[in-house]
């Protein structure tokens, strides 16, 4: 586990996220007062499930020591009125996934996913250490994607559009404002989606997720809107049309404003 040091550095990134969207001087979004009043003093708690395999034990140690996920949820706990206590569970699942379970009011992050991501990046030609760091970055993106699902359901937020796209947008919005580490997490996710082409099948087109290729390009689109200078070389290499990049900027502003309007009534004051 070469990435322990890297995980510690990511803590700073997470701490920066708090100032990214929440309390960013959002103008006067009109409070949807009932909902805000109904909200209580809930907290998101991070829980470590019992693990058996040596690999899972290694991951457990890394996350417990670095407190990466505790730091990731801290800005949410500090800034948002949550209607109840919620849980982020880390552990061994027996399968590769990360998911939000509405009935249990929990997000589950499976160590198998992070192991899988490491293999994905290894396959793309990265060395072990770089692949581990990149896997951690992609896992951070995934975590905020799942957090979006959680907030949407627990806070009964009005979503217009495919929820899976909205979750990607939320994660990209937060992380694009969280310094180089946050931007790295978005790029890692884009690389992951870009390297796992969706099979051309009817089932895939019917899926609740957009195609992996679309998710990859969309993340680049949103990140470019926030950091055009840093991404200029990449979007050029990828062949993004200039008209699309302009639309990306408009969409980014629209998404940011919409989230601000939704979240503002729930901000702790
Ligand atoms: Zn999702």
Features:
alpha/beta, 4 strands, 269 residues, four-stranded mixed sheet, binds zinc ion, single chain, 12 helices
Structural notes for this entry:
There is one protein chain. By secondary structure, this protein is α/β, with parallel strands linked by helices. It has one domain. The chain is 64% helix and 7% strand. The chain has 12 helices and 4 strands; from the N terminus they run ααβααβββαααααααα. A 4-stranded mixed beta sheet has the order 1-2-4-3. A hairpin with a 4-residue loop joins strand 3 (98-101) and strand 4. The chain is globular and about 50 Å long. Zinc ion binds at residues 145, 149, 164, 167.
- How much of the sequence lies in strands comes to 5-15%
Structural class: alpha/beta
What is the straight-line distance between the termini? 40 Å
Number of domains: 1
Radius of gyration: 18 Å
Low-confidence stretches: 21-31
How many beta-strand runs? 4
Set down the secondary structure blueprint.
Elements: H1 4-20, H2 33-38, E1 44-48, H3 54-66, H4 68-79, E2 86-91, E3 98-101, E4 106-110, H5 111-123, H6 128-154, H7 163-176, H8 179-195, H9 202-206, H10 212-226, H11 228-238, H12 242-263
Parallel strand pairs: 1-2, 2-4
Antiparallel strand pairs: 3-4
Helix pairs in contact: 1-4, 1-8, 5-6, 6-7, 6-8, 7-8, 7-10, 8-10, 10-11, 10-12
The structure holds zinc ion.
């Amino acid at each position: 586990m070469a990435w322990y040091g890297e995980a510690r550095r990511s803590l700073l990134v997470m701490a920066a996220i708090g100032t990214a969207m929440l309390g960013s001087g959002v103008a006067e979004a009109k409070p949807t007062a009932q909902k805000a009043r109904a909200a209580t003093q809930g907290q998101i708690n991070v829980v470590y499930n019992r693990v058996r395999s040596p690999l899972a034990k290694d991951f457990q140690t890394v996350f417990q020591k670095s407190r990466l996920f505790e730091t990731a949820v801290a800005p949410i706990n500090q800034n948002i009125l949550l209607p109840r206590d919620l849980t982020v569970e880390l552990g061994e699942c027996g399968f590769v996934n990360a998911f939000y379970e509405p009935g249990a009011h929990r997000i589950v992050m499976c160590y198998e996913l992070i192991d899988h991501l490491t293999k994905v990046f290894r396959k793309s030609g990265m060395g072990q250490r770089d692949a581990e760091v990149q896997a951690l970055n992609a896992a951070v993106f995934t975590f905020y994607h799942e957090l979006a699902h959680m907030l949407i359901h627990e806070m009964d937020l009005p979503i217009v559009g495919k929820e899976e796209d909205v979750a990607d947008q939320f994660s990209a919005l937060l992380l694009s404002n969280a310094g180089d580490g946050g931007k790295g997490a978005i790029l890692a996710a884009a690389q992951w989606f870009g390297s796992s082409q969706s099979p051309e099948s009817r089932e895939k087109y019917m899926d609740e997720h957009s195609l992996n290729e679309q998710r990859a390009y969309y993340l680049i689109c949103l990140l470019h809107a926030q950091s055009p200078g840093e991404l200029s070389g990449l979007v050029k290499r990828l062949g993004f049309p200039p008209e699309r990049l302009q639309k990306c900027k408009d969409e980014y502003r629209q998404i940011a404003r919409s989230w601000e309007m939704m979240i503002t009534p729930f901000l702790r004051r």
